[in-house]
Amino acid sequence: MIIKTRFAPSPTGNLHFGNIRTALYSWLYAKKNNGIFVLRIEDTDKKRSKSIFTKNIFHTLKWLKLNWNEGPFFQSKKIKYYQEIILYMLKKGFAYKCYCDNDTLLTMKKKKIFEKEKPRYDGRCRNLGNNFNSLNKYVIRFKNPINGTVSFNDIIRGKIQFNNSELDDLIIQRENGIPTYNFCVVIDDIDSKITHIIRGEDHINNTPRQINILKVLQAKIPSYAHLSMVMNSDKKNFSKRDNSTKILTYKKLGYLPEAILNYILRLGWSHGNKEIFSIPEMIQLFNLKSITKSSSIFDLNKLLWINKYYMNLSHKKYIKKMILYYFKKNNLNDTLGLDLDKLIKNFLPHSYTIQNLFDLISHFYIKDNKIIYPDDINNYLNFNTLNILEIVYNKILVLKDWNLNIILNIIKNISLSLSISLKDIIIPIRLALIGKIHSIGINQIIYFLGKEKSLFRIKNFIKYIKVSLS
Ligand code: GLU
Ligand code: ZN
Q1: In the chain, fewer beta carbons within 10 Å around the N or the C end?
Q2: Would you say the CB of residue 201 lies under 6 angstroms from ligand 1?
Q3: Strand partners, 224
């Protein structure tokens, strides 16, 4: 048997960590078993489906290299085909037309609630027959078995059983002729010969309904694995409309795809205490049984930690390529006589994302006369600051050995000799050199900027203070 899994998103929002976890686990399970991973776009809901979200699905999966072997199949292109099968089901008596209008359904619902029963459809159109000659509008419902039970062995949760008496006669075709989600899924899973359905636990209630349809169509029942939810740090379910959980937001912020995948893998699956998994390791070690039943909580700090790890593991050329992309995006010139390779090597161990690394490195590439001082700069424009900077300037001017320790010692000595705290010495130098109060170590800034640029920027700032004091 060829193992076949599928990822079947509806293009009604941007893919988030929960969606991608479903995709990753389905992809891994197919890979592990030399199987086939199918991509299907469930876009029968015309109002909510948007092409921008379909693009987001492709872009996200491609970026993460979750390549599909078959598809993408679009449900919206198969409407006629589904309708033919529904016609067949009508003929066979597996389905029937329901003519109940909204008022009738509402009254039915109220009555059921009053009788303390589940507010479900009472099946009153079941026996009208297909020849019932009415010009009224209708929907088509599946004739769900009335008695007995329907059960399945969920790979993660074990046996799950429903009484048929709890299940509605599901609408499989709407009044406008469009077949519904639960029906299309079944047909597509049969057509694609899906063997393992891995999806969110929000579909557990759909599974018995889908199994009943599979049964009347005499199709093989696939295996199911329902994943628990991924919640954001406020313990709320992820929303497809929340940009902070949109995967591509993390691409923009400079996360690496391998880090994202590693993080998502561990969001609900474990292999002892192991945290870091290369893609081949994931494929080798992944299994459905070790997926947790409890919900998982998104933890940004852990993602940052993993991203930092992968950044440091990556080839420097790969990092450089990405950094250069940020240069371009920010209209920064990378040829100002600074050694970019050296800067990357130095700052990479302190960076959590590529954006983060770029922010550190970009200080050095600001044009000397384009430094932007903070809004509260006036607090620093005084004789004390002027004095500190003039001393620093003169010390750097005569400095011969250009090394990190010597530079640091110079600054420490100035602090001692003026009896001013190191922090208060460093702030004006930082402002002069990069326009910031907080940042990387001051000796690193001076060292990497180089003597000439450092002196030039300090001199500029001295002039600026003098003007403001005069
Ligand atoms: N289209 C459904 C969703 O986005 C998934 C259906 C399925 O996996 O069966 O939630
Ligand atoms: Zn009816």
Answers
A1: C
A2: no
A3: 154, 197
pLDDT at 146: 93
Distance CA 393, CA 410 (A): 11
What does the pLDDT look like over 44-71, one tens digit per residue? 998 999 999 999 999 999 999 999 999 9
Sign of CA dihedral 27, 30, 34, 38: negative
Nearest CA to ligand 1 atom 7: 8
Question: Does the predicted model carry a pTM greater than 0.85?
Answer: yes
pLDDT in tens, 123-180: 999 988 766 666 688 999 999 999 999 999 999 999 999 999 999 899 999 999 999 9
- Secondary structure class of 442 (helix, strand, coil): helix
Ligand closest in space to the Cα of 134: 2
For residue 72, cis peptide bond before it (omega within 30 degrees of 0): yes
Percent of the chain at pLDDT above 70?
97
The bridge status of strand 223-227 relative to strand 196-200 is parallel
Cβ neighbourhood burial of 245 (10 Å; 0-12, 13-18, 19+): buried
For residue 253, report the distance from its CA to the centre of ligand 1, in Å.
28
**Domain-by-domain residue ranges, the chain?**
80-173, 314-365, 370-469
Evaluate: CB of 323 within 6 angstroms of ligand 1: no
CA distance 286 to 27: 10
CA torsion through residues 329, 330, 331, 336, sign: negative
What CATH fold (topology level) applies to the domain 80-173? Answer: Glutamyl-tRNA Synthetase; domain 3 (3.90.800)
Domain 370-469 has CATH 3.40.50.720: no
Greater confidence (228 vs 367) lies with 228
Other CB atoms within 10 Å distance of the CB of residue 59: 15
Query: Could you write out the DSSP letters of every residue in 71-114?
Result: EEEEGGGGHHHHHHHHHHHHHHTSEEEE---HHHHHHHHHHHHH
Q: Burial, 122: exposed, middle or buried (Cβ in 10 Å; 0-12, 13-18, 19+)?
A: middle
Kindly report the CA angle at 345 between 354 and 256, in degrees rounded to 5? 25
User: Rounded to an integer, what distance in angstroms lies between the CA atom of residue 140 and that of residue 124?
Assistant: 13
User: Measured in angstroms, how far is the CA atom of residue 126 from the centroid of ligand 2?
Assistant: 7
Tokens of 303: 């993602």
